[in-house]
């Protein structure tokens, strides 16, 4: 009689390893309800090798630790549409690699997905366990635990030995969530990050040796890249500084030209219309005398009045009646300011979409809803945000809008109307807090990965076997 091999008893979570990927330890959530196993992966790139499709990717093997990073490469065995726990379907690459759990090793299929927002870096599905394991969900770590000291020995020593890029963050407030996250993401990936207060930088204009100096006389001559997060009030000086870095051969993202275009709201809207992008009907004037004609130009009240220089909901007013519209416009007249008058999209019901674009791809999208009694313009100062599935038309609108302005990173605001999606605004320094909190995605890490790709920097491939 043929001897039947005893099955391994495992609990609801177990430590396992992937020798061919250079991952000596990764904690897995055991889920017999999931068909295919999945591993956390980011910076995923498909390429050709010996005539075959391969994929390179990076893994944060430890939860809540982005400093430990392992780069891997494997042939692609399949691409599958998988529905995530949030209910959104996405296409994932599938690889085949040996799994080591306990004393046993066998090949398993893994889908590659960003699991930053999930509790475990790996999910062990039933296909990998079939015929080999019995799950007792009341238990955990049946095959042993791994100490923190051992994990440090596996990963932290390699993390400390990495040498990365030198990246400056040009901004004004080092305590802002978005700036903190970008600095953190860069450091976690092994780069030297430096916060540079735009107002503390000054320039030497020279055809042969252009320079940027920082407070105390420090010469900034060794940056590989500069991330530009310029607040609207210092756009002119911030863009001049970005141009100076560009003349020194430093990669700037976003570029000075793209920021300048995006900050001129009127010019940006004119560029969009020229390229076939739909926007709400808009009027523009400088302290107009014919107030009523301006109101009728956009279809009458209700309507929105904006100061051209306003930002993040400031200088934006909803006028619900023609009389209210006249009062607001006349008040702005006293400022002798340029203003935009825009039709109010009632069917949007106080909601808009924020799409975050990185290098021509929408990497995250949320729906923002104004607080009760408010309207869309005040979403920056309150309201709620939730993950949303955008349509292909909305995705293309966001991508095309960022491309028109030449922005590598952009927050594109879209409103849904009865005639389809309409562009509201493109932000060249979009905030990360709301979209990272709602989606659980590491947007800051994606921004750093984009810089790595542009500069051709690659983390050393892990060749260690376990």
How would you describe the overall organization of this protein?
This protein has 466 residues and is α+β, with helices and mostly antiparallel strands. Among the domains are: 8-159, Cathepsin D, subunit A, domain 1, CATH 2.40.70.10; 166-262, 3-Layer(aba) Sandwich (Rossmann fold), CATH 3.40.50; 282-344, ATP-grasp fold, A domain (Dna Ligase, domain 1, 2-Layer Sandwich). Helices cover 24% and strands 35% of the residues. A 7-stranded mixed beta sheet has the order 2-3-11-4-10-9-8. A 5-stranded antiparallel beta sheet has the order 26-25-24-27-28, with helices on both faces. A 4-stranded parallel beta sheet has the order 14-13-18-19, sandwiched between helices. The mean pLDDT is 87.
Compose a concise summary of this entry.
It is built from 11 helices and 28 strands. The protein has 466 residues and is α+β, with helices and mostly antiparallel strands.
Q: Briefly note the structural class of the backbone.
A: alpha+beta
Give the percentage of residues in beta strands.
35-45%
Query: Percent range for helical residues?
Result: 10-25%
Rough shape?
globular
CATH level 1 class label of the domain at 8-159: Mainly Beta
**What is the mean predicted local confidence, pLDDT?**
87
Number of helices: 11
Return the CATH topology of the domain at 8-159: Cathepsin D, subunit A, domain 1
CATH architecture of the domain at 8-159: Beta Barrel
Largest sheet: 7 strands, mixed
Biggest sheet strand line-up:
2-3-11-4-10-9-8
Report low-confidence residues grouped into runs of 5 or more. Answer: none
Number-wise, the strands total 28
Distance between the termini: 35 Å
